[in-house]
C-alpha cells in the first residue's frame, strides 16, 4: 500500500496489529520442530511400512541448537527459552540479542547466519527485501541448518533454496509461504527434507475472531468520529 498517497487523500487506514503474534510464533516453533525432529518424514516412514525394515534417521535436538530469527522482535517474544534465539532486527547480517527477560540463556552474539542451526524468517516483504535470502546466505549456513519461513515467500530466492536443498548445502526447509502462492514449485514438493504448509500461520479460530473484532472496532470508531484504535499514522 502506498501510505504517502492515502495520507495525501486523508484516507484512514488501520491494521490488525499484534493479533497474529502468538499464532505466528506457534507455527514457527511447529515448523522448527517438524524439521529438527523430522515429524513429517517419520509419519511417512511409518505409513509406508519402512519401519519394518529398520529404524529411521537420527534427528536434531532443537534445545541444543541456536536459532537466528530475522524479523520483528514481537514475533519472537512468545517463543520459549529453548532453543536460544537471536534477533536480527534490521538488515542482514546485523544481529542483536533479545533481552534476557524474554529469552533466557541466549548466547553472546555470534556471526549470523554462520552459527545458526535454524534460520527463522519473520521480516517484512516488499521489493527492498525481495530475494534477500539467497545462495550467498545458504552458502555460509551450517550443513545441518534448516530455513524456516513464516513471513513472505518473496524474501527467499526459491531457485537458490531448491538448489541448496538438492545439493545438501543446508539440511532442510520448513515453509508456510511461497513466492507464487498457491503454486508451489514441483522441486520443493518432491524433496523429502522440506515441510510445506499452505500459509496458515494466523489461521486459528481464535485469531480470526480477534481480527474480525479489530475490524469492527475500527469501523465503529470511524463512523462515530473517534480515532481509529489501530490506525497507521
Automatic annotation (TrEMBL):
InterPro entries in the cross-refs: D-isomer_2-hydroxyacid_DH (IPR050223), D-isomer_2_OHA_DH_cat_dom (IPR006139), D-isomer_DH_NAD-bd (IPR006140), NAD(P)-bd_dom_sf (IPR036291)
Keywords per UniProt: NAD, Oxidoreductase
UniProt-recorded Gene Ontology molecular function terms: glyoxylate reductase (NADPH) activity; hydroxypyruvate reductase [NAD(P)H] activity; NAD binding
Domain D-isomer specific 2-hydroxyacid dehydrogenase NAD-binding: 115-201
Gene Ontology CC, one term: cytosol
E.C. number(s) listed in UniProt: 1.1.1.-
Protein name per the record: 2-hydroxyacid dehydrogenase SAV2305
Amino acid at each position: 500500500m502506498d501510505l504517502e498517497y492515502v495520507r495525501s487523500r486523508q484516507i484512514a487506514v488501520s491494521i490488525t496489529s499484534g493479533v497474529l503474534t502468538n499464532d505466528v510464533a506457534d507455527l514457527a516453533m511447529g515448523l522448527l520442530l517438524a524439521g529438527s525432529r523430522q515429524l513429517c518424514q517419520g509419519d511417512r516412514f511409518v505409513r509406508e511400512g519402512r519401519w519394518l525394515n529398520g529404524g529411521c534417521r537420527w534427528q536434531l535436538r532443537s534445545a541444543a541448537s541456536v536459532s537466528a530469527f530475522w524479523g520483528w522482535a514481537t514475533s519472537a517474544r512468545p517463543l520459549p527459552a529453548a532453543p536460544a534465539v537471536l534477533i536480527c532486527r534490521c538488515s542482514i547480517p546485523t544481529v542483536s540479542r533479545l533481552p534476557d527477560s524474554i529469552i533466557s540463556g541466549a548466547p553472546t552474539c555470534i556471526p549470523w547466519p554462520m552459527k545458526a542451526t535454524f534460520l527463522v524468517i519473520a521480516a517484512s516483504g516488499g521489493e527492498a527485501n525481495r530475494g534477500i535470502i539467497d545462495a550467498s546466505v545458504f552458502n555460509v549456513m551450517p550443513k545441518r541448518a534448516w530455513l524456516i519461513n513464516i513471513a513472505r515467500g518473496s524474501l527467499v530466492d526459491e531457485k537458490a533454496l531448491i538448489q541448496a536443498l538438492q545439493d545438501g548445502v543446508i539440511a532442510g526447509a520448513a515453509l508456510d509461504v511461497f513466492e507464487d502462492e498457491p503454486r508451489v514449485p514441483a522441486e520443493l514438493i518432491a524433496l523429502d527434507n522440506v515441510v510445506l504448509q499452505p500459509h496458515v500461520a494466523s489461521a486459528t479460530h481464535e485469531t480470526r475472531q480477534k481480527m474480525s473484532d479489530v475490524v469492527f472496532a475500527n469501523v465503529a470508531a470511524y463512523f462515530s468520529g473517534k480515532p481509529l484504535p489501530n490506525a497507521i499514522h
